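Ticket reopened. Same input as before:
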Amino acid sequence: MSLDIVITPEANNGKRISIAGSLDSNTAPELQQSIDTEINNSVSATILDFKDLDFLSSAGLRVIFKAKKLMDSNGGKFLMVNLQPQIKKVFEIIKALDGMNVFKDQEEMDEYLAAMQDKVKEGE
Amino acid sequence: MDKPVPNVQSITLQNKISDSSKLFDFLTQYARTFKIPDETYNDLRLVLEETFVNIASYAYEKDDTQTISVELKSTADEISITFTDTGIAFNPLTKSTSCMETNDHCEGGMGIHIIKSLSDHQEYNRAGQSNVFTVTKHYT
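Engineering reply: fixed in the latest deploy. New output:
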């Protein structure tokens, strides 16, 4: 029941946090620490990639919601991608998908981000 | 016709959150041995984590090292998990570590909501100096 965290840069000052393994009461503090270290108001978008995450408990949800709040208050975006069905189920149980940007895969997220970029350009 | 014999196994853990990994290993081995369906196993993994963390967090005074025992019992149709501890009177459905101050996701605690959503029946009793909390789940 361990958690692996990999942080990679994304276009336009974004950051991708890829989490693998188990996000539970024991490992949630590690993710919180990564977020505290890596996410500041120069980060335009935080992408949480769940591809290899197979377990999520309420302790993990708390860290995730806190990260979303942080991005909201910084005027940035918070996106979640590649949720496995049992992970998505946890969010659905607490009805927490409303108001979240959730993408089933990278392709769907890329389309969204491209559309966002186009909107920004139109506004310039 | 004879009633089916339940498969009973138990484990004794310490009231520390890190022992949830031992509980996970115990559940995994039980599920393998008694062929618990995958979806039931996945749901139970979460129910056990949420319940155990609540009990370990609240049933005892800080720095008080005590035990929590967990018994798994299953038949052909359902599985029940009984948590027993000797802490203060504490029903894990009343307090959860996952209740956030700003509350859109509280409703008595996300953990509590998860436990209730992923199980069919929950029962708490105070028996002498012990808390006994049982969660039951029917197989899908």
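The helical segments of chain A are 28-38, 58-73, 85-93, 106-123. Residues 3-123 of chain A form a domain with the Transcription Regulator spoIIAA fold (CATH 3.30.750.24). Please confirm and we'll close it.
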